[in-house]
User: What shape does this take?
Amino acid sequence: MNRILYESDERKNGRVYLRDGRAEHIRTVLKAEPGDVLRMGEIDGPLAEGRVVNLDENGVELGITPGECPQRPCLDLLLALPRPKVLKRLLPQISALGVDRLFLTNAARVERYYFDSHVLDPLFLNKALVEGLVQSGDTCLPKVKVLRKLREFFEVDWTDTGCWLLHPGVDQSLLTAPVFRPRQLLAIGPEGGWQAAEVEGFLAAGFEAVHLGKRILRSDTACICALGIAAAKGESYGRS
Amino acid sequence: MNRILYESDERKNGRVYLRDGRAEHIRTVLKAEPGDVLRMGEIDGPLAEGRVVNLDENGVELGITPGECPQRPCLDLLLALPRPKVLKRLLPQISALGVDRLFLTNAARVERYYFDSHVLDPLFLNKALVEGLVQSGDTCLPKVKVLRKLREFFEVDWTDTGCWLLHPGVDQSLLTAPVFRPRQLLAIGPEGGWQAAEVEGFLAAGFEAVHLGKRILRSDTACICALGIAAAKGESYGRS
Assistant: This one.
C-alpha cells in the first residue's frame, strides 16, 4: 500500500481512526508502532502524514498533518462500457494512471446487460478506483458518469479539450499527435471497435482519430496503452 | 477471433482439419459455409487464407493458401515473474502487443512459489500467448525463457540491443528515449520494484534506466504501458 487513503468524513479533529483492512495493513504489513509516521492522503483532498497515536487489535488512530493538494489529472476518459469482468480489472488501473473524469458509455457493440452489473454500483466503483489511487499514491478520485446513451456525451461542452478518438487504421498516431491544453480526452471503443456512424458522430463533435499502432488490441489493453502514452506525453512535454 | 491460427503440424497436403474450439467458432460465430474464405495463419509461419472445404458437427476442413510471413517483433521483454494470477492475465496482452523473446526471471521481490505455478507449464504458456496472437492477427509466438536466477540473464549477449530498465524516479522517460536498432529490450521489475543491487547489475550490463511518468504503476500496468509505448515508437519512427 503506497499511501493510506481516508475519506474527509473519517477525519475528526485532525485524527482518523481506522478499523478495516487499512488498520490490518498498518499493523501486520507495515508493522507500525506508536510514533511512526505513515504516508497518507485524503480522497479528493491533500496528501498527508499520519502519525500513529494508538494501535491495537480494534484499530489504528492517527494524527493527520495535511500537505499539498495534488493537481487533478488533466486527462478525461470515455470508455465504451466493457464486460463487467474486464471493467472490474480495469478500474484500479485507470485511477492509477490518472484520470479526471471517466465516462462509461453505451455503443452499438456494448451488450445491454453490462449496464446491470454490480460493478457499476457506486460503492463498488469507488472501492475499485480507490484501490488504484492507493497504489499510485494520488488522492484524486476519477469522477464517474455512466451514460446509457452515447449521444448524451455529445451534448457535453468540449471546448478547451483536445478530444482523441482511438480508432485503428487511421493515419495519425496518438504517440506523435500534439498535446492539447489545458486538458485532453481519450475515447476508447468496445471490443470490435466503434461503428462507422459512431466514428462520424465523434468526428462531427470535433474529435480527431488516432491509432495506437498497426496491431489490433483488446479494448482494455488499448485503454491502458492509450492512458500511459497520453500521461507520459503530458508530463514529458510540460504542463501549460 | 481476428485470425484463426494453426500449428504447422496441423497442416497436411495444404489442408487443416480443426475439431476444437476453433471449429466451433467457425461454425457458430462466423457461421461459415463451404466456399467461404477465412483469415488464418500458421503459428511462427505465414499468414494464410483458409477456404472452407467441409464442415459439420465433427469439425471443419479448410484448404490453405499461404501468404506473407510477418516480420518478428523487434522487441524483447524481461519480466520479473509476476504472481501466477497476474501472469495469466498478462500473457495474451504481451503477445498481442508484439514481443519476440520473453524472459521470465527471478528477482529479490519475486516469491519463490511463483515458479511452481501451472501458468509456467509450456502448454499453458503457449495457449495463453496464442490467445493474444489470435486477437491481434499476428502469427509470431513469443519465445519464452524462464530464468530461475536473474544473473543467467546477464550472461546473454545483448550486443545490438537497446536495453531499457524501467525504474521510477530516474530522469529519462521511455517516451522520449531514442529508438535503438535493430532491436530493443524492456526490463520490468516486480511489485515493489527492483532492488538497488539489481539496478546496479542492469546498469553494469549496459542497460539505461527510464521511467514511465511520475505515477507509481502496478508492474502489470507498467508492462502494458511500456510495451505499448515502445511498439508505437518503433512504428512511428520507422524501422531500420
Notes: Chain A is about 30% helix and 25% strand. The domain at 75-236 of chain A is CATH 3.40.1280.10 (Alpha/beta knot).
